[in-house]
Write a structure and sequence with these properties.
This protein is α/β, with parallel strands linked by helices and 455 residues long. The chain has 2 domains: 3-104 and 412-454, Urease, subunit C, domain 1, CATH 2.30.40; 106-387, TIM Barrel (Alpha-Beta Barrel), CATH 3.20.20. The chain is 34% helix and 20% strand. The chain has 15 helices and 20 strands. α5 packs across α6 (186-202) and α6 (186-202) runs parallel beside α7 (227-246). The structure holds 2H-imidazol-4-ylacetic acid and zinc ion (ZN). Zinc ion is lined by residues 110, 112, 283, 363.
Length: 455
């Protein structure tokens, strides 16, 4: 089997402006907006079997033009509508999905993509009973990655970023959020955000950059009695203004957790970020109930992430926010709980029952979740969070797009959305999480052009 990643696939002049995908057993559109409650289980799918098979006149197709979706649905109706809009059939390349499943490109809304070094030793420590926070307090964990990352050059970080973005793409991701947070000093935090920006410009994936200066208290502050407060002041005065002035972060994140940053410290950082035009999202209640979910709701954050140990009040606060126009998306990271060998998985069913939109992400990082595979995360979500396969797919497409404030642009297949999609080598999306760890991706399309093909 060969796998070809096509870099620079942002449309050269000799490429056709149109693409028509036929031959799909299923086209999963996720059309209709953010998924909450019972809707999380509705993938808005067209099935060839319902209309006479993949060759029938009403078989589902997807049409793309100049990087955007222009038609989804029964073939003859879509082709007629293209003609009516003046889009000539001769300018559409044809792609046969060969009985596979077409879905929106996957969106990974929480990764720590950029780091140097590895931490496989922590797995052995955990097997012997060490906790995540014990390892950090002993100078390991995030701090060991910070030391390696500070020593890495921009070129080394770029090469690392390209390698792992390719892995994510190979598993069906077309947009990836990328956090800084392994610099914890102005120069390295800026370097990480610059690298994220360069990777996005290079393509083919889109990278959404998040500034996470408040990931841990760096070593040079740790000898002070008020170390965390002093570092928070430094973030607000020495880092945030530079990040804002350079316009290199879309979001600001904080690791709000007992023993890391308190609610008050997290609020101070996120309000200061909002004051300079950078929107909040946060690591909330990963290890213990820490007030993170409550803070996300109070601030109207676009997303509250982890939620493996939220308080009842935190869930109530998210449920209240879910009733508004701007719900806080609960971005759950079950591969992390799994890899930490912890047993307190996020209360996903409760969140869905309370109307909170649920997204899923890899949390790709060198310590607690070194997987680039969102389909595997879907499997863990089905097995450990009780999500249905359709709920899990909504969580890595439409809801993940909303967790990045991009729900009007990506995450679903409907007219005017960016034409990012995946063709899977299975006849129904219900099989995407059914083969744990298998790579079922056949073709990835970004902005209407194939960027990965498996032969
Ligand atoms: O490097 O341990 N939880 N941040 C918050 C992480 C995990 C990444 C790490
Ligand atoms: Zn994280």
């Amino acid at each position: 089997m060969t796998l070809r990643v096509i870099h620079g696939g942002r449309g050269s002049a000799d490429l056709m402006p149109g693409l028509l995908i036929t031959g799909a057993s299923e086209v999963v559109t996720m059309a209709g907006g953010i998924r909450r409650g019972d809707d999380q289980d509705d993938p808005a799918v067209f099935r060839a079997a319902d209309v006479g098979g993949t060759d029938a006149p009403d078989a589902p197709v997807v049409a793309c033009w100049e990087g955007r979706v222009v038609g989804v649905g029964p073939r003859d109706a879509v082709v007629a509508s293209l003609a009516a809009e003046g889009l000539p059939a001769s300018r559409f390349a044809r792609l046969d999905a060969d009985g596979g499943t077409v879905t929106p490109g996957l969106v990974d809304p929480h990764t720590h993509l950029l780091f140097a070094g590895t931490r496989e030793g922590e797995l052995r420590l955990r097997q012997r009973g060490a906790g995540y926070l014990d390892i950090l307090a002993a100078g390991g964990g995030i701090l060991s990655t910070v030391a390696a990352t500070r020593a890495a050059t921009e070129d080394e970080l770029l090469a690392h970023g390209r390698r792992w973005l390719d892995e994510m793409l190979a598993h069906g991701a077309t947009t990836v959020e990328v956090k800084s947070g392994y610099g914890l000093d102005p120069a390295t935090e800026l370097r990480l955000l610059h690298v994220a920006g360069t990777l996005s410009e290079e393509g083919p994936l889109d990278v959404v950059p998040t500034y996470l200066g408040a990931h841990a208290v760096p070593p040079e502050f740790r000898s002070q009695p008020d170390a965390a407060d002093a570092y928070v002041r430094s973030i607000i005065h020495d880092q945030l203004p530079l990040v804002a002035a350079q316009g290199i972060a879309r979001f600001c994140d904080v690791f709000c957790e007992e023993g890391i940053f308190t609610v008050a410290q997290s609020r101070a950082v996120l309000e200061a970020a909002r004051d300079v035009g950078i929107e909040p999202r946060l690591h909330a209640d990963e290890i213990a109930p820490s007030g993170g979910a409550e803070l996300a709701a109070e601030l109207g954050a676009v997303s509250a992430d982890h939620l493996a140990a939220p308080s009842d009040e935190g869930i109530d606060a998210l449920a209240l926010a879910a009733d508004t126009d701007r719900p806080v998306v609960a971005t759950l990271l079950p591969a992390t709980t799994w890899f930490l060998m912890a047993h307190h998985y996020a209360p996903a069913r409760r969140l869905i029952e309370r109307g909170v939109p649920v997204a899923l992400a890899t949390d790709f990082n060198p310590g607690t979740s070194p997987t680039p595979n969102l389909a595997l995360v879907m499997t863990v979500a089905c097995l450990e969070l009780g999500l249905t396969p359709s709920e899990a797919l909504a969580a890595v497409t439409v809801n993940a797009a909303h967790a990045l404030g991009l729900g009007e642009e990506i995450g679903s297949l409907e007219p005017d959305r960016q034409a990012d999609l995946v063709i899977w080598r299975v006849p129904t999306h219900l099989q995407i999480p059914y083969y744990p760890g298998a790579n079922l991706v056949r073709t990835v399309i970004k902005r209407g052009q194939p960027i990965l093909e498996r032969g």
